[in-house]
Amino acid sequence: MITPTLKTDRFIIRAFKKCDLEYFSKYRSLPEVAKYQSWTDFSYTDSLALFEKIDYSKFAILGQWYQLAICIRESNILVGDLAVHFVDKSQVEIGFTTAPKYQKQNVASEAVSALTTYLFEKLNIHRITAKTDARNIASYRLLEKLGFRREAHFHQNIFFKGSWSDEYLYALLHSEYNNL
């Protein structure tokens, strides 16, 4: 299966292109973006390595992560990205990052909503999950706005950037999505 191209009113969600990588590495290396992420610095070399590792011609392979670009429809300008991990045949884990210039504009909300629709309606996924740092209020509020429910609060489960941190696990079932 080839990586899908999803369209919303404002955005196109698609496979990354090499021309996206410079801006991708710039916004991901910003301290305000990296604050709740597993990385501290995200160089162009890191972006290129990630890009070269993903086989976009084989989308939805179990155990694989795929990075998708969120771009403005009219200009194709990169504004953020989605991460999609096919855990098994029935479950997918997602993540999302928005460039600071485009935060507080419902970019991630619109993109995650489109991805959720695709995963449930086209791939018939049973369950979508997302983990977030418990301090990342914007992230967990977005998930709750889209109907995800908090399934777990992991207390000091991860040693993260010099201290122990809490994480929340959110999930949405296909049956719950149908009732939204």
UniProtKB/TrEMBL annotation:
Top-level enzyme category: transferase
Annotated N-acetyltransferase domain residues: 11-175
Keywords noted in UniProt: Acyltransferase, Transferase
EC number(s) per entry: 2.3.-.-
UniProt cross-references to PANTHER family, sorted A to Z: GNAT FAMILY, PUTATIVE (AFU_ORTHOLOGUE AFUA_3G00765)-RELATED-RELATED, N-ACETYLTRANSFERASE DOMAIN-CONTAINING PROTEIN
Protein name in UniProt: GNAT family N-acetyltransferase
Pfam families registered for this protein in UniProt: Acetyltransf_3
A GO term for molecular function: acyltransferase activity
Gene source species: Microbulbifer epialgicus
